[in-house]
Amino acid sequence: MSKVLIVYGSSTGNTESIAQKLGERISSAGHSVEVRNAADTQPEKLADGYDAVLFGCSAWGMEDLELQDDFIPLFDGFDQMNLAGRKVAAFASGDREYEHFCGAVPAIEEKASQLGAEIIAEGLKMEGDAGNDPEAVEAFAQDVLKRL
Ligand SMILES: Cc1cc2nc3c(=O)[nH]c(=O)nc-3n(C[C@H](O)[C@H](O)[C@H](O)COP(=O)(O)O)c2cc1C
């Protein structure tokens, strides 16, 4: 059994719904899962005690990438999370009409990699909430589960 932390930043609930679905799916596979809202989460030593951390964050920029408000302090504090050697994957809800579709996903992957985390699944980028594309959520959950 692995200990998994899922942290999400979500303004209208779409990324939150993906986080909750992933939490249900991964815990039903026998792992210990904690799902936390970025609004109530501090970056310091965040990853301590967890085998894997899944980050979910929507994007709200127009031309430039802007991360969801609650997630910004976490993103700025990634270097304080103790991510080195930890398994990490990213997910987001977004809108393909925008230039940086689910732009938080590659941003999180790049920063976590630079800090020594192991990216264990290709990031999930989808539109709408978890119910909009259950197959995509399930495929991402399966990818993560294979590497736990
Ligand atoms: C002003 C504005 C800017 C947005 N920028 C982006 C963006 O850069 N990339 C993207 O994929 N979606 C963008 N979106 C769409 C939202 O990220 C999308 O609705 C998402 O599902 C919201 O997820 P949340 O409810 O988890 O915050 C934008 C929406 C608005 C209104």
What's the helix and strand layout?
Layout: E1 3-9, H1 14-28, E2 32-37, E3 52-57, H2 72-76, E4 87-94, H3 104-114, E5 118-119, E6 124-127, H4 134-147
Helix pairs in contact: 1-4
The structure holds flavin mononucleotide (FMN).
Concise description?
The chain contains four helices and six strands; from the N terminus they run βαββαβαββα. It has 148 residues and is α/β, with parallel strands linked by helices. The longest helix is centred in the first third of the chain and has 15 residues, at 14-28.
Task: Please tell me about this protein's structure.
The chain has 148 residues and is an alpha/beta fold. It has one domain (3-147): Flavodoxin domain (Rossmann fold, 3-Layer(aba) Sandwich), CATH 3.40.50. It is 30% helix and 22% strand. It is built from four helices and six strands, in the order βαββαβαββα. Strands 1, 2, 3, 4, 5 and 6 form a six-stranded parallel beta sheet that branches. The longest helix has 15 residues, at 14-28. The radius of gyration is 14 Å and the shape is globular. The termini are close together. The relative contact order is 0.21. The mean pLDDT is 98. The structure holds flavin mononucleotide.
